[in-house]
Write a structure and sequence with these properties.
The complex is a heterodimer. By secondary structure, chain A is α+β, with helices and mostly antiparallel strands. Chain A has helices at residues 44-52, 94-104, 109-122, 138-150, 168-185, 196-202, 220-225, 230-235; strands at residues 2-11, 18-28, 33-37, 59-64, 67-68, 79-82, 156-160, 188-193, 205-210, 213-218, 240-250, 253-258, 263-268, 276-282, 288-291, 297-306, 310-317, 322-328, 342-346, 353-354. In chain A, the strands form 4 sheets. A 6-stranded mixed beta sheet of chain A has the order 6-7-8-3-9-10, sandwiched between helices. Classes of the chains: A alpha+beta, B mainly alpha.
């Protein structure tokens, strides 16, 4: 278990000081695939480097199973990193790279050889053990970097956007591969990415970061279905934002009045406002079109965009604004509705998410 | 580049002529020097047939032998000391957090490139004279120290360039994999730094081998190096033996400089 408690990192000083991390607190559980997700510059890599020991936080504490990590130098921490650039040692072979950590730990030669063999098997690189790292492909380098970081059996594996340099198909394969390695080794993975899909596919839990702070922590489904605030809803997936009025709120259950005057049950994020004007987020695929007069929000159909797997209906709401409804396509089912038709948007009770801001 | 594609210096009228003239000015004297080193005549300007007699004469000349050995000893010692100092300076100016005075250090290390050599020579002459008076020591170390001082920047620059070109995350990766700072340096930084170190040492060796001004001022009686010996010879009778020695020196320098370029080019 990694406990990060009120960690702040300020780069520079006085006038041009930059707050890369602002009182970040998070607990990462044992054996968890934990993802730090956010746009570039949000502080996710800085937080990873704080755990690895390459960045000293200005304030706060970081402990691993009760042990204070900040008092340990990087080479004393039971934590290994897969670097974004892989950082393989160019003057060593694949096997020597993988064995480096074990050797530095002073493990006997026999054990180093055996573990390197196991690691080569684990990442399916046994045939290339004696190659130079410059003689193998990007995907293979990536697997060597993984094996090298896993070989010393760290308690935590830190991964800094390790898939960003790979092409699309290889990235898909490696996502599954990483998930497999994590469950086979039982090591806690802390994974940094700006790719929301990668985060949703692989993670047990995701922390969404922005501007040096964690905005929301939860399972992929939690984060996607119930974003707590506008940034999270906007950063992950597509979202419709509706102006509404919060009537009552009781725990997660909220009652809102939409701009059309209709009232419906919605979910409220923790720590939101009690009453008054709010924003409600609705995912395009969670809503549907209804005949005029039946739904919640009447409007006129604008663009209808065919995407193969699904179709996007852009509805210009009478109350102002645009709402996108996404509907999965069925074979040979021509769309009866067209531009200019009067329609209404509808979604079920509890679908709308009342945002904190 | 703001220049765009309009101006191409190689297409200006007279470019070829000027370029050829430059090459002739640079290399014709050297070619003549080499050719006349094989001259059978005693004149440096009149061709008397092919012969290796002046090479043999130089090889048998005891003063040439002594001067050569002295030159090699000084150059070897100075290049080793200068390279050691240069590695330290290069690490301190690239592998530490920026610190106050880093630029000053950079300027101090490169001082020999900026101060006129003759000024350094006079300063060293006076400085060493004081030490000589105080200690009575008159050995070769004055020359070795003087050569070390002016060789440092030549060793420093290629080593620093190599360090700056190296991926810092490699050293972080080593630290991440339980290597102490010393282990990380020995197992990761140093193996990649070797070409830079060798290149720096070679450059320092050539610079030391070649020096006249500072050596001339610092040396005690009977401490001629090859270049100062040759300078002394020129004041007396000029024989093609000088050509032969020069050609040999040229060959050594060219070989070392070529090795330097190959080493600095081998990036991976």
């Amino acid at each position: 278990m990694i406990e990060i408690d009120r960690v702040t990192k300020v780069f520079g000083s006085a006038a041009d000081a930059f707050r890369a991390l602002d009182t970040v607190s998070v607990t990462i559980r044992q054996n968890e695939f934990f993802t730090l997700l956010g746009p570039s510059g949000c502080g996710k890599t800085t937080l990873l480097r704080v755990i690895a020991g390459f960045v000293d936080p200005t304030e706060g504490s970081v402990t691993l199973e009760g042990q204070d990590l900040l008092r340990l130098a990087p080479y004393e921490r039971p934590v290994n990193t897969v670097f974004q650039s892989y950082a393989l040692f160019p003057h060593m072979t694949v096997a020597q790279n993988i064995g480096f950590g074990l050797e530095m730990q002073g493990k006997p030669g026999e054990e180093v050889r055996r573990t390197v063999g196991e690691m080569l098997d684990l990442v399916r690189m046994s045939e290339l053990a004696d190659r130079r790292t410059s003689e193998i492909s990007g995907g293979q380098q990536q697997r060597v970097a993984l094996a090298r970081a896993l070989a010393p059996r760290p308690r935590v594996l830190l991964l800094d956007e390790p898939l960003s340099a790979l092409d699309f198909k290889l990235r898909k394969d490696m996502q599954l591969e990483l998930k497999r390695l994590q469950s086979e080794t039982g090591i806690t993975f802390v994974f940094v990415t700006h790719d929301q899909e990668e985060a949703l596919t692989m993670s047990d839990r995701i922390a969404v970061m922005n501007a040096g702070a964690i905005r929301q922590i939860g399972s992929p489904r939690d984060i996607y279905d119930h974003p707590a605030e506008r940034f999270v809803a906007d950063f992950i997936g597509d979202t419709n934002f509706l102006e509404a009025e919060l009537l009552t709120v009781e725990g997660e259950r909220a009652e809102v009045r939409l701009a059309s005057g209709r009232e419906i049950a919605a979910r409220a994020a923790e720590g939101g406002a009690g009453q008054g004007p709010v924003t409600v987020a609705v995912r395009p695929e969670h809503a549907d079109l209804a005949p005029e007069g039946e739904g919640l929000l009447p409007g006129r159909l604008g663009d209808v965009v065919y995407f193969g797997t699904d179709t996007h209906f852009h509805v210009d709401l009478d109350a102002g604004g645009r709402f996108v409804v996404r509907r999965q396509n069925q074979p040979d089912q021509a769309e009866a509705r067209g531009r200019g038709d009067r329609v209404s948007v509808r979604f079920g009770p509890g679908v709308g998410q009342v945002l904190r801001d | 580049m703001a220049r765009g594609k309009g101006f191409d210096v190689t297409r200006q009228p007279g470019f070829t002529t000027v370029a050829l003239l430059c090459f002739v000015m640079l290399y014709l004297p050297i070619v003549l020097l080499v050719v006349f080193s094989f001259n059978d005549s005693t004149s440096v300007a009149e061709w008397g047939g092919f012969s290796l007699r002046w090479y043999q004469s130089a090889l048998e000349n005891e003063r040439v032998q002594e001067a050569t050995i002295r030159s090699v000893i000084i150059a070897t010692a100075a290049s080793i000391l200068a390279t050691g100092a240069a590695v330290g300076a290069a690490l301190a100016t690239t592998r530490t957090r920026p610190w106050r005075g880093q630029t000053v250090v950079f300027a101090i290390v490169n001082q020999p490139l900026m101060v006129p050599e003759i000024v350094t020579a006079v300063a060293l002459l006076i400085f060493f004279a004081m030490i000589k008076v105080a200690t009575g020591y008159t050995g070769l170390w004055y020359l070795i120290i003087a050569h070390t001082a002016f060789c440092i920047p030549f060793a420093f620059l290629p080593i620093r360039a190599r360090l700056q070109g190296m991926d810092l995350t490699l050293e972080q990766a080593a630290a991440d994999l339980y290597a102490t700072p010393w282990q990380a340096f020995r197992r990761v930084t140093l193996p990649q730094l070797w070409p830079g170190i060798l290149a720096g040492a070679m450059l320092a060796f050539v610079i030391s081998l070649d020096d006249v001004v500072i050596t001339e001022f610092v040396k005690s009686a009977g401490q001629d190096t090859l270049p100062t010996y040759m300078l002394g010879q020129l004041r007396r009778v000029v024989t093609p033996e000088i050509n032969a020695i020069s050609t040999a020196l040229l060959a050594v320098s060219v070989l070392l400089v070529m090795a330097f370029f190959f080493l600095s080019r081998s990036r991976k």
